[in-house]
Amino acid sequence: MTYLLSISIGPVQDFIAAARRTADLYAGSQILQELSRTVARYLADRQARLIFPADKEADGANKILAEVETDPAKLAEGAKEKAQERLEELWQESIDKLPEEYRKQINHQRAQEQLKHFLEFYAAWVPLEDNYPQARQAVERLLAGRKALRDFAPTQQNDEGIPKSPLDPSRAAVIDPKEWSDVNIRLEDGSYKPLRIKSTEYLDAISLLKRCYGVRQSGVVVDTRTMARRAKNPEAMPQERWGEDDDRITEPQPYFAILVADGDRMGELISRQDNPEAHRALSKTLDDFAREARQIVRKYRGFMVYSGGDDVLAFLPVNQAVACAQDLSEGFRHRVRGTLSAGVAVVHYREPLSQSLQRARDAEKAAKDGGRNALAVALHTRGGAPITVVRTWDKLRWGELLQSFEQGDLTQGLAYELLELAREWQDDMNVAYLQAEAERILGRKERKGLRLPLFESRQDLLDYAKELVVARFLSGVELEHPKEVARA
Q1: What is the pLDDT of residues 11-37, one digit of tens each?
Q2: DSSP 430-486
Q3: Is 373 in contact with 341 (CB distance < 8 Å)?
C-alpha cells in the first residue's frame, strides 16, 4: 500500500530568531536546513518519492511530504533518529574546533541532555488512494493535531543554581562565560576567529552550537554594521570593520534594512494541485525561486539569511531594500504565478537583533493585512515613533522619491514640515486650504519643481509625508541634522 507521509522538523522561528549576532542568526537557519536535508535524503534513499521538497538537496524545507511504500511508522522513526544523529554530529564538529582547555570546561552531561530534547519532530501518514487532495488535507490535519499534542518531557539538566541561557531561558548554561572572553575557534583554513562571548552570555548547548557554527561560517556572514556601511560603500566587507563594540564610534549611515517576504495564499495554491506530480512540479518551482532569490539579494549587495520556497529573510543596505523587494516580487510572479507580500524594517545596526527581526516580521504582517500583494516599509529610529507605509506593488512611488533625495532635490526639512502640518490639521477643515499650505511649504523647501499629489483628505497628506520621511532614510543619504531623527 502507498502512504502519504508528512514530517515537520523544528523548532523554526524561535530557534532561528534566538540570536545576539548575525552569525548566530545565520547558524540557526543553516542548522535547521541541514537537519531537514538529512531527513529528505534518508527518505529518498529508501525509495520514498519526495513531493515537497521535490529535490532531497533543496534548502529550506523544514516540512517534508512524500509518497512511501514501506511501513511509514518505521520510516518516520528512522528519519527522526537520523536527524538527531546529525544534530549531535554538528555539535561535535563544532566543539572539536575549540581549544582543548575550553572543551574541558563545557558541562558535557548537561549539553547532551539539552541536545537530546531539542529537536521537535512530528510525523503523520494516511493511505494514498485515488483522491490526492483529500489525502493531503487529511494528513495535514493529523500532523497539526499531533503538533498540538506535543510532548512536554522535562529535561534533566541538573541545573540547580546554574544561570539560565539568555537566548533560551528554558535551558541552563553549559559554560561559565567569564572564562570564555578570549576564546577563539579554528576555521577550515587553519586560522582562528574569536567567538566574542560576553561575560553575561551564559550559553546553553544549542546557543553555543549556533555561536561556534556561525563563527566558522564567518567567511559568508555579513554583520549589521557592514550592511549599514554598504549604503555608502557597496563593496564594504566584514573584515574591514573596526571598533565593533565601541559605542563612541559613529557611523555616517547607521541604518540598514531587514527584508521578510512570503508568498500569498500558498495554502490555496497547493490545494489546487490535484495529484502528486503537479504538487511536485510546484515544489520544484518554489525551489527554483529560492535559488533565484539568493541571486537577487546578492545583486543588491545584501546577505541572505534564509531562503526556502516562498520564504525570504535578508539583510540589505537601506538604499537597495525597495529595489530588491520589487525584484523578488517580480521573480515570484513570473516563476510561481503567485503574489508576494514583503516587509522591510529600517533599523539601527546597534539595536538588539531579536527586536529588529520582530519589527521586520511586523512589517510583513502589515503588508498581508493591507490586502496582500504589497510592500510595507517600517522606519524605526532610535528614540522616535515608528512610521509604517503600506503600498501595493503597482502603486509604489519610492523610486522617484529616493532619486529626489539622492540628487539633493528634496530637503530633509520638507518631509518633517509636511508631517507636522498633517498632524496639526483638523479633519473638518477645508482640504483646499491644506493643499495650498502644503504647496507653500514646498515652494520654500524644494528646488527642482517637484509636484505634490492632489490631497483629498488630511490622511492623504499624512501618508505622503510619512513616505517622504521614510524615503529620506531609504535613500541612504547621510543625516543632515541627527536631532531630526527623533522627531520621526
Answers
A1: 887 788 888 889 999 999 999 999 999
A2: -HHHHHHHHHHHHHHH-SS---PPPPSSHHHHHHHHHHHHHHHHHTTPPPS-THHHH
A3: yes
pLDDT digits (tens, 9 = 90+) for 404-458: 777 777 777 888 899 899 989 988 889 999 999 998 888 876 555 677 889 999 9
- Give CA separation, 387 vs 84, 220, 384, in Å: 44, 32, 9
What's residue 167's pLDDT? 86
| Pairwise CA distance, residues 90 & 80, whole Å | 15
Q: Has residue 320 got a pLDDT over 90?
A: yes
Query: Based on C-alpha coordinates, what's the Rg of the chain?
Result: 25
What is the sign of the dihedral through the CA atoms of 476, 481, 483 and 488?
Answer: negative
For residue 164, what is the DSSP state?
A: B
In whole angstroms, give the CA distance from residue 394 to residue 369: 17
| Grid cell digits, residue 252 | 555616517
For the chain, domains (ranges, CATH) are 3-158 (3.30.70.2220), 222-238+251-396 (3.30.70.270), 397-488 (no CATH)
Lowest mean pLDDT among 96-105, 111-120, 210-219, 475-484: 475-484
- How far is residue 9's CA from residue 2's CA, in Å, rounded to a whole number? 23
- Nearest one of 115, 140, 137, 132 to 8, comparing CA atoms: 140
Share of the chain above pLDDT 70, in %: 92
418-422-423-429 Cα dihedral, nearest 10 degrees: 150
Count of residues for the chain?
A: 488
The three three-digit cell numbers of residue 63, written as one number = 516540512
What angle is formed at CA 145 by the lines to CA 140 and CA 150, rounded to 5 degrees? 125
